[in-house]
Design a protein that fits this description.
With about 220 residues, the protein is α/β, with parallel strands linked by helices. The chain is built from ten helices and five strands. A five-stranded parallel beta sheet has the order 2-1-3-4-5, sandwiched between helices. Keywords: DNA-binding, Phosphoprotein, Transcription, Transcription regulation.
């Protein structure tokens, strides 16, 4: 059973999300909050697997709440941020802070349910084109500041495939290797970059200039 915490300053949004998600046999909404300030205490008490959180709130927003969870808790829940607009710069700030992915509020109910299941399973919810566009608006350059991380040529290749949104199985087909081999490469990439998950690895790749957001991702 996936335990979920809903955080949004609009009661109508929380009510709608609860109706959608509580109807699923493998998801239970264990709590709600109207502001990010309440999130740390609720997470400690309710131990949710996933926090579905609005990125923009009047007092403590989703960015600050996400950063607190990731930096202060030894085992933080996965955070999936909600946004009205896909080009909202706050979304990228939330990803930098440690969110596993983002979801548009106008997403269909089935997409919302699937997104929760994806992040609860430990995977990342990446929208490669959207993330690339968000970084491009920040004026990142094409320099490579990840050389000190010690990525091998194959690990760099795997990181670029991750940035394109491919799963381990899809990367394995591209490289013509086994899925377990890809999992090992992905694990090495995350460890060397100090990344919690694939989303954070991609953020690091764009932030450092290892991948130029102004160009399609080449592998």
């Amino acid at each position: 059973m996936i335990k979920l915490l809903l955080v949004d300053d609009e009661e109508l949004v929380r009510t709608g999300l609860r109706a959608i998600l509580d109807a699923e046999p493998d998801i239970t909404v264990v709590g709600e909050a109207p502001d990010g300030a309440e999130v740390p205490g609720l997470v400690r008490r309710l131990t949710p697997d996933v926090v579905l959180m609005d990125v923009r709130m009047s007092a403590v927003d989703g960015i600050a709440a996400t950063r607190h969870l990731v930096t202060k808790l030894p085992k933080p829940p996965r955070v999936l941020v909600l946004t009205t607009f896909g080009n909202d710069g706050h979304v990228y700030d939330a990803l930098q802070a440690g969110a596993t992915g983002f979801l548009l509020k106008r997403a269909r109910p089935a997409e919302i349910v699937q997104a929760v299941r994806i992040v609860a399973s430990g995977e990342s919810l990446l929208f490669p084109a959207a993330v690339r566009d968000l970084v491009a608006t920040r004026g990142r350059n094409g320099g490579d500041e990840l050389r000190g991380a010690g990525l091998t040529e194959r690990e760099g290749e795997v990181l670029r495939w991750i940035a394109r949104g491919l799963s381990n199985a899809e990367i394995a087909r591209e490289l013509m290797v086994g899925v377990e081999t890809v999992k090992t490469h992905v694990g090495n990439v995350l460890a060397k970059l100090g990344a919690r998950d694939r989303t954070q690895a991609v953020v690091a790749a764009y932030e450092s200039g290892f991948i130029d957001p102004r160009r399609p991702v080449d592998v």
